[in-house]
Description:
Blueprint: H1 2-43, E1 47-48, H2 60-63, E2 67-74, E3 80-86, E4 89-99, E5 105-114, E6 129-138, E7 143-144, E8 147-148, H3 161-168, E9 173-180, H4 203-231
Parallel strand pairs: 1-2, 5-9
Antiparallel strand pairs: 2-4, 2-6, 3-4, 4-5, 6-9, 7-8
Amino acid sequence: xxxxxxxxxxxxxxxxxxxLGVWQVQRLSWxxxxxxxxxxxxxAPAVPAPAAAEWAAISPEADEYRRVALAGAYEFQDEVLxxxxxxxxxxxxxxxxxxxxxxxxVWINRGFVPDDRREASARARPxxxxxxxxxxxxxxxxxxxxxxxxPAGGRWYSRDVExxxxxxxxxxxxxxxxxxxxxxxxxxxxxxxxTVVSFRNNHLxxxxxxxxxxxxxxxxxFYVLSRDRSQD
Length: 232
């Protein structure tokens, strides 16, 4: 009886481990496809940024990191700094609403400024109609750096489009923001084009681990059960 129960438990364990391995293989296929699609979007020519009629159809799978372009005028009186850590060091993203000729607004991440260059006079503030291109990013609600956004205190830790728009009274705004491309002057502030497009992809190693555990359990169970049977 004990031998049969041990055999059954071993078979169930092997099946579970194999199932986990197969699931990771499926996840690997999904992640590989996602990476390929995102890389294709980043490298593609810019398309018009989604207008109001298209907002409801925006999805992470189809639109995140899509290269887009639009025209409009910046509203610098509503500009905010959002805490950031980049390859340039610690500092802030410069988030500025841009109002299109049609009247709707979209938040633009104009780029990065270091901690010691946060004053408005240190960065460009182009007036009038501007052409902006960059990567479409979905809103980042709540906060970051283990801190919640504090609109009343002027402390922002994530690029929360809804919270930013509500704080400044922007009622007709896009549900996304745009990470602007770097301008022609490479070192001019703010520094655009710093979006890191990177996805962790450990599914192959996870799958191999589960398969190895299944093989180890099967081999160990076979050895123990064979020894026990021979001693009966």
